[in-house]
Amino acid sequence: SKLLEIKGLHASVEGKEIIRGLDLEIGAGEVHAIMGPNGSGKSTLSGVLAGNPAYRVTGGSVSFHGVDLLSLSPEDRSHEGLFLSFQYPVEIPGVSMTNFMRAAINAKRKYFGEDPMPATEFLKLMRQRREIVELDNRLASRSVNEGFSGGEKKRNEIFQMAMLEPRLSILDETDSGLDIDALRIVASGVNQLKTKDNATIVITHYQRLLDYIRPDFVHVLYHGRIVHSGGPELALELEERGYDWIKQQVD
Ligand code: ADP
Ligand code: MG
Ligand code: MG
């Protein structure tokens, strides 16, 4: 079976239906890009998968490596291996990155009935994973995201992803506001973390990021549904032709 199977998903926010019968399947080892016009429901889909209480699921099912994802709390979804990188990362004053990561890792271990990670092993892991995103040690000792630049926040998110080793990562417009160097580092981090067992969903407006993170599949989300799918060449076509031809097919 697939790593992720979304069937007939419907979700609403404040009584308004945003996701309207969405189907999507993701296999282990795959990278999927989701593109689409503003307001089509891309961030809503990430929020629904992560369990953000602002969204109400009104129909459909989501199976995540055989687990009924929608029945889990947001924390347990994360423990089961779902990682969401936010379009706007939050700042957590007074909590250092080191302590934040230790708490996250040990909560996951506890969920699986394991003891906390020994301190030396944890610090070694921190060092090793920091290198993947070229994250400075000083950032790791500062409060989570506090006073970080846009690029540093995004890099920090990929660092968190590297630490947690998720089965499925959803990167929601991770490229917005990144200069080309930060983009390259973020993309290289994502590529280095890719294995045959995990998968990534890259939500983006721009083909640019997909030059660095090459997707196996590209989907267009419009009006709360996946209305068109293709290979990497679809991203280039969308960049060139825009979305009008897709909207016309659907409307
Ligand atoms: P995208 O990420 O594709 O640009 P979104 O999922 O952010 O689109 O938004 C889809 C629609 O849902 C928009 O019309 C947006 O205004 C609405 N929406 C999303 N989140 C909320 C919210 N928390 N409260 C009210 N409306 C929302
Ligand atoms: Mg948007
Ligand atoms: Mg969005």
How are the SSEs placed, and which strands pair?
Layout: E1 4-13, E2 16-26, E3 31-35, H1 42-50, E4 56-64, E5 67-68, H2 74-79, E6 82-85, E7 92-96, H3 97-111, H4 119-132, H5 137-141, E8 143-144, H6 150-164, E9 168-172, H7 180-193, E10 199-203, H8 208-212, E11 217-222, E12 225-230, H9 233-241, H10 244-250
Parallel strand pairs: 3-10, 3-11, 6-9, 9-10
Antiparallel strand pairs: 1-2, 1-4, 4-5, 7-8, 11-12
Bound molecules: adenosine-5'-diphosphate (ADP) and magnesium ion (2 copies).
Structure notes:
It comes from Paramuribaculum intestinale. Belongs to the ABC transporter superfamily. Ycf16 family. GO terms for molecular function: ATP binding; ATP hydrolysis activity. InterPro entries: AAA+_ATPase, ABC_transporter-like_ATP-bd, FeS-cluster_ATPase_SufC, P-loop_NTPase. Keywords: ATP-binding, Nucleotide-binding. The chain is of the alpha/beta class. The protein folds into three domains: 1-27 and 60-71, no CATH class; 72-176, 3-Layer(aba) Sandwich (Rossmann fold), CATH 3.40.50; 216-251, no CATH class. It is built from ten helices and twelve strands. The protein has helices spanning 42-50, 74-79, 97-111, 119-132, 137-141, 150-164, 180-193, 208-212, 233-241, 244-250; strands at residues 4-13, 16-26, 31-35, 56-64, 67-68, 82-85, 92-96, 143-144, 168-172, 199-203, 217-222, 225-230. Strands 6-9-10-3-11-12 form a six-stranded mixed sheet, sandwiched between helices. Strands 2-1-4-5 form a four-stranded antiparallel sheet, with helices on one face. Strand 9, helix 7 and strand 10 (199-203) form a beta-alpha-beta unit. The longest helix is centred in the middle third of the chain and has 15 residues, at 97-111. It is globular, with a radius of gyration of 18 Å. It binds adenosine-5'-diphosphate and magnesium ion (2 copies). The site of one magnesium ion has 2 residues, from loops.
